[in-house]
Amino acid sequence: MCRVRTIKTDYHLMFGLILFFSYFLFGKSWNDEILTIATEIMFRNLGDTGPSLVNRVLQMVGEQLERPSLAGSWLSYLERPPFNTDCFKHWRYTQKPFGPYIEMHSNEDDLKSTLVSLSKGLTAGTISGAWAYHFSFKTLLCLYLEAFSPIHNSEYFGDAFPNGDDSGRKYMIKYNGETMSLHDFWDTGCGQYSAKYPFSVIDWRRIDTEVTNIIKANPSGSFPPISIVVEDIINESYHLSQYVYPNTISPNTELPTEYVDSCKSLVSKRIPLAAYSLAKFLKTINIPNIVPPNSKSPISASEAIAWAVMCFLVPLATFLTWNYFHKKTKAD
């Protein structure tokens, strides 16, 4: 969790620096659309129960969203301006080594551990309080869906990446002549879903159509027994990394047509499977009756900005403090 240490300084200048540096330092996340599509598929699988369940959680803090399905993609658009909140990015990845080199990571609160903790807390009813429950529930929606993505569950180590490719974010490729990371290619459903929140009317229309087409092509009954065990889901996603990192691709080159087709075929199954599994998991949760606090403004803007300030205040404050004493030591 991010913590704030108060120091005596110019807070207006500090806040300006926070926004300035955060805009340039933190990359965009392209998977708003794919997460929203998966959440909409989950809603249709659950019927009216799905949106009703999410709305009950949103009402705990008086949050209002254009559509309740945006609760499933909030961690994605929270990383972009004007929020630039990067605190939770490491929760979205389990970087298990893949490839000829083996180098283990040490991250005690990665995708796997965080999702296991949240799922247990929500099913057991041990998470209480309006803010805590609201935050945990929305975080779980996003992490649960991303647990089905191979790129979020592995990191490639090889000759070109002896220190790892950071889950494809350092692995640059070309798709249709455009340079992008392998991570962004997979996070957009192999280049199919690149719309970012806020969605336009045309975006929503396309999302609804895509949801209908995906369900028609892959109804819930077309899958074998669907697991809701986090460890099983993540292990399966990791083994599918063989399709992310085959010998047929290499950095800084155009992706072969066969690779793109294979990616689209895999993603077309993983999206609905993630949605149906999430729907099944949500049936195990009993939403507590929590009275929303009296608040004049919704959490969607004010709370997110507060988190952004906290997350970026810590490193900046640390740097300013270190710089002050470093100069003072030299002067002495």
Q: What features would you describe in this structure?
A:
The protein is mainly alpha-helical. The protein has one domain (21-292): P1 Nuclease. The protein has eleven helices and four strands. The strands form two sheets. It has a two-stranded parallel sheet. Strands 3-4 form a two-stranded antiparallel sheet. A hairpin with a 2-residue loop joins strand 3 and strand 4 (178-181). The radius of gyration is 21 Å and the shape is globular. Residues 1-30 and 312-317 have low confidence and may be disordered.
List the helices and strands and how they pair.
Elements: H1 11-25, H2 32-46, H3 49-59, H4 74-77, E1 96-98, H5 111-124, H6 130-146, E2 154-156, E3 172-175, E4 178-181, H7 182-187, H8 201-217, H9 230-239, H10 257-282, H11 299-331
Parallel strand pairs: 1-2
Antiparallel strand pairs: 3-4
Helix pairs in contact: 1-11, 2-8, 2-10, 5-6, 6-10
Structure keywords:
11 helices; disordered N terminus; two-stranded parallel ribbon; about 325 residues; two-stranded antiparallel sheet; P1 Nuclease
Q: What's the overall average pLDDT, rounded? A: 84
The helix fraction, in percent, is 40-55%
Number of strands: 4
Separation of the first and last Cα atoms? 36 Å
Alpha plus pi helix count:
11
Q: What is the rounded Rg?
A: 21 Å
Number of domain units: 1
> Going across the major beta sheet, what is the strand order?
1-2
The helix-strand sequence is HHHHEHHEEEHHHHH
CATH class term: Mainly Alpha
What CATH calls the topology is P1 Nuclease
User: Which oligomerization state do the chains in this entry correspond to?
Assistant: single chain
Shape descriptor: globular
Which structural class fits the helix and strand makeup? mainly alpha
- How many strands, what sense, and barrel or not for the largest sheet? 2 strands, parallel
Report the sheet-strand fraction. under 5%
Q: Which architecture per CATH?
A: Orthogonal Bundle
The CATH superfamily bears the name P1 Nuclease
Poorly predicted sequence stretches spanning 5 or more consecutive residues: 1-30, 312-317
